[in-house]
Amino acid sequence: RADQRMQQGDVSRVLEEHLRALPEEQRTLVILRDLEDLSYEEIAAVTGLPLGTVKSRLHRARAELAEKLAPYLDDVAT
């Protein structure tokens, strides 16, 4: 439906805004993993961070994004 695509487009715009608002390191990790599809090991090699640090910081970044996006996702789901 057209109205649903519009809402999904709004969510994409809001996601981009919140992604840009993350601290640079968190934003980089999310981009490398979720947009560039690098493995955790590849991200650790690229960033020089220990594997456990990559995983924990990526988890925190995703949790922050999920919290900020929750109201928008609820709107799209209904």
Number-wise, the strands total: 0
**Arithmetic mean pLDDT:** 85
**Any low-confidence stretches, pLDDT <50, length ≥5?**
none
DSSP strand (E) fraction? under 5%
Radius of gyration: 14 Å
SSE succession: HHHH
Coarse structural class = mainly alpha
Overall 3D geometry?
Answer: elongated
How far apart the termini lie comes to 13 Å
Helical stretch count? 4
The percentage helix is over 70%
Biggest β-sheet strands, sense, barrel: none
List the helices and strands and how they pair.
Elements (H helix, E strand, L loop, with lengths): L1 H20 L2 H12 L4 H8 L3 H27 L1
Task: Describe, in plain words, how this protein is organized in 3D.
It contains four helices and no strands. With 78 residues, it is mainly α. Helix 1 packs antiparallel against helix 4 (51-77).
